[in-house]
Write a structure and sequence with these properties.
Blueprint lengths: L1 E6 L2 E7 L10 E5 L6 H8 L11 E2 L2 E2 L5 H8 L3 E4 L11 H11 L6 H10 L15 H13 L5 E5 L7 H16 L3 E5 L3 H4 L4 E6 L2 E7 L2
Parallel strand pairs: 3-8, 3-9, 6-7, 7-8
Antiparallel strand pairs: 1-2, 4-5, 9-10
The structure holds adenosine-5'-triphosphate and magnesium ion (MG).
């Protein structure tokens, strides 16, 4: 896939010929210096952006050239996102924040499921708290819980541990590992080599190209 940005006569080759695939139960991390194309790749894989060149298949379906409405259908129930800035709504409780994706999809609240997911990320006891009453790591876990609410097949996370200390980052990676054992495919970007190499596969980008790809044996 390629993603080139055009600014006047200048072309930024943010992604310049990167092939990527992931299967169920696999965790892949994307490493690389700032500006190497990690977020660009994540946005393409999330169907939030379209490649300038190349094709993409999500859960066996080609998404090339689909309209925004059709993409929403593809994303529904398949793709969960975690952003570096958690994007929690400050006036909603933890529980309400986690339930938001259901509301967006026009589904009824499902308190039992919400509680199960909060338990999974270890935050059941914070369900009625507001985001400002949480630590950074806890907020990140709320964002992960929210992504998991729709029972995605693929979890896409851009710098999920970027703002976290080592211990909290490790606990989040531990959670990710448990989730892959349940069949979830996880793609994360990180600047942290130690975390990155916990994944099943590590892809390192440089200037929009794959510098190296390593598989853990
Ligand atoms: N909308 C845009 N228009 C033009 N250039 C862009 C745009 N978005 C990103 N770029 C450029 O594409 C390149 C890759 O950006 P990207 O955000 O993918 O990097 P990154 O690897 O995620 O970096 P970081 O580690 O800092 O988050 C950068 O040189 C950036 O300036
Ligand atoms: Mg980025």
């Amino acid at each position: 896939m390629k993603r080139h940005y055009h600014r006047g006569s200048e072309t930024v080759k943010a992604l310049d010929g990167v092939d990527f695939s992931i299967h169920s139960g696999e965790m892949v991390s994307v490493l690389g210096p700032s500006g190497s194309g990690k977020t660009t790749l994540i946005n393409l894989l999330s169907c939030l952006d379209a490649p300038t060149e190349g094709t993409m298949t999500v859960a066996g379906k080609s998404v090339t050239g689909l309209s925004e409405d059709q993409l929403v259908e593809v994303r529904r129930g398949v793709l969960g996102f975690v952003f570096q800035q958690f994007h929690l709504l400050p006036t909603l409780t933890v529980m309400e924040n986690v339930e938001l994706p259901l509301t967006f999809l026009g589904l009824k609240p499902h308190p039992q499921r919400t509680k199960e997911v909060l338990k999974l990320v270890g935050l059941l006891d914070r369900a009625s708290h507001l985001p400002k009453e949480l630590s950074g790591g806890q907020m990140q876990r709320v964002a992960i819980a929210r992504a998991l609410m729709i029972e995605p097949k693929i979890l896409v996370a851009d710098e999920p541990t970027g703002n976290l200390d080592k211990a909290t980052g490790e606990s989040i990676f531990g959670l990710f590992k448990e989730l892959t054992q349940k069949g979830l495919a996880i793609i994360i970007t990180t600047h942290n080599m130690a975390f990155g190499y916990e994944a099943d596969r590590v892809m390192t980008l440089e200037d929009g190209k794959i510098l190296k790809e390593e598989k853990r044996v």
